[in-house]
Amino acid sequence: MRPNAMSESEMEDFKSDVVNWLMPGIERYLVDSADPYYYFIAEVQDEPEWTEGDGYGTLKVKFTCYPYKIKSDDEFDDVWDSFDFDNDIAQELNFAVKGESKIRVYNASSTSIYPQFELSSTMDITIDGHQVTYGVGRHNDKLLKFAMGWNDIAVKGNGSVKVHFHKEVL
After folding, report:
1. What is the pLDDT of residues 110-132, one digit of tens each?
2. Which fold has domain 94-169?
3. 34 — alpha (psi -120 to 50), left (phi > 0) or beta?
């Protein structure tokens, strides 16, 4: 057995843990170490293939993924470690509303996305002709959608509205 290799029983325990974690029918976050600021939503489709020898093993897994990778950081947060100066946009996503306000938000995704709204009081929010009345708190009910690019939002109420979403790209 080579140095740092697992014993046969350790290998079997490890394999069992990984295969159980990857159970088909359950969606998981899948992070590619080459692109750590994004994740995929993935599901195992077939039984994993396992080969081993000399205290080492290889597990081959086929995933079916949602077609877009999702940025781990909320667009509300300007986290500079993950900021892509070629493709990201720095924008204000915390707005004070007194009566009626028109706000613009840019969705730099490759697809439309569902934003979340965090409100300090009850407000009416309208996007592309669709109006929803939300109470205090954070709402992610998928009733309002951002198109790619600029989105004009009409807000009625008094208080603050924070817009949260995660960029999705190919």
Report:
1. 999 999 999 999 999 999 999 99
2. Jelly Rolls (2.60.120)
3. alpha
